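Changelog note: in this version the structure field was regenerated for every chain. One regenerated record is shown below for reference.
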Amino acid sequence: MSSPERFEALSAGLAQGVRDTDGLIGLVLLGSASDEASHRRDEWSDHDFFAITEAGRGPELRPDLSWLPDQEHLALIGREGEIGFAAVYDDGHVFEFAFSDAAELSGAIAREATVVVDDEAGTTAQLLAESRARAESGDRFDPENDVRLMLVKLLIGTGSVRRGEVLNGGMFIRQWAVQLLVRAIRGRFAEASTSLRDTIDPMRRFERDFPGWSGRIAAAVERPAEDAAHALFDLTREILEPGWDAFPTRAADAIAARLGW
C-alpha cells in the first residue's frame, strides 16, 4: 500500500543495500516490481525479488538482513523455508523474497523480471534466463488430468468434512479443488485467457479472463464446506462436461452417487 514514489524509493534502497553488502552479487525485481510490469502496480503491489549471494554463502549471509532499506520502519520479518523471507513495514508494504545463491534457486521460475544488480560474470542474468525458460516450459495445462484430480479432491474433502474434520476437508475443497478447477478451465478454454494472465500462477487474474465463472466459483466457496463442494461439483459439470468427450463422466456419476448428490 505504497505511493509510486515510496515504491521506487524502496526499489532503489534494495539495490543500494545489495551493492553495499559483502557477499551479495545480484538483485532481480519480479512481477509488478519489475520495469516491464510496472504498469500493473497499484496500492496493493508488493516487492517480490531474488537477492543473490556469492556461491555457497547463503547459509552464512541469511541471518543478517540489515541490508534491507528503512530498517527503522520494519515491523516484522518471517521465514518461509530455508531461503524464503517475508517482511512487512509499518506502512503495510510487503517484501517477499528468496535470499540465496544461484544454485539454491536452480528450480526457480520467473517471467516479468528486471536484473538490477549483477556481477561481472552475469550470474544473476543467467539465473533469470534459466528461470524464464522453466516458466515457459511449465506454462502448460492438462485439463483432462486436472479435472480428474479436482473430482478426487472434492470426494476426499467432503468425506473429511462428514468425518468431522472440517478444517482439513475445507482445505481440499476450497484450495486444492478450486486451483485444479481453474487450471482445467484455463486448459479447456485456452483461447479465452488474455495476455493479462499470470503464466506462473493460473489463479491470478482469473477474474479478468473469466468474470462470470470466477464470480460463481467465489460464491460457491463462501458456503459451508460441503455445500461449497457440491456447488463446485455442479459448476464443474456445467462448465466443462458439455461437448467434451474427455470429461470423466463415469467418475463424476460415481462420486455423485457416493455422496448422495
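Spot check on this record: The chain has a mean pLDDT of 91. Residues 166-188 form the longest helix (23 residues).
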